[in-house]
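SEQUENCE-TO-STRUCTURE ENTRY
===========================

Subject: a protein chain together with a token-level encoding of how that chain folds.

Sequence line: the amino acid chain in single-letter code, read from start to end.

Question of interest: how does this chain fold, as expressed in backbone structure tokens?
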Amino acid sequence: MAKKAPAFKRVLLKLSGEALLGEKAFGIDRDFTDYLAREIKQIHALGVQVTAVVGGGNIFRGVSDNAQGMDRVSADHMGMLATVINGIALQDALERVGVITRVLSAIEMREVAEPFIRRRAMRHLEKGRVVIFAGGTGNPYFSTDTAAALRAMEIKAEIILKGTKVDGIYDSDPLKNPKARMFSRVTYLDVLKKGLKVMDTTAISLCMDNRLPIIVYNLKAKGSLKRIVTGQKIGTLVVEE
């Protein structure tokens, strides 16, 4: 029986820093990071070119309570450094399961990560490596959501896969409202108008302007990544119409 061709050839996986918390209150849950590595390995084995952007919220966020009273630029730089720590943790987990990975940082720190150069990133993908983009956009006032949208477009990813704690996008918080209704499909404009918390408005606007689809899915549902990549309808699809 012939192996089914994946629905996407190149994807960008957007993970919040909080995703790496797993069951912990702070820092990085090694078990959950290992689980993520196994999930990514499954789609990499199908021949999909995989990139990822990880937030830094499990360590530090520029807009968090901990940053109150700090200079915003300094706080955002601290958040960007946290994304590098998370990127290296995910790289370590991936390489322990046999997937060669490179971390490319928007903030230059050559001892721990390669500088982000678009053509270098493309070359790594062509050689079958997973590429993790760290350091946000390298600029304060921009979230890792915006960095994910920007990098996805720069490397010509076909879709952003946003892993969350819930099954998709709901009309209200399903963790607080048991009657919350999940959308199977929603437009960029609906996300903006209804204030649905998918990604921030800058990231959604970038995706809308460039017609880059987003799938929001449950990161903890084992095998979801593989099902999405093989064309199954999982989570919520954000598209133009």
Remarks:
- The longest strand covers residues 10-15.
- The longest helix spans residues 72-96.
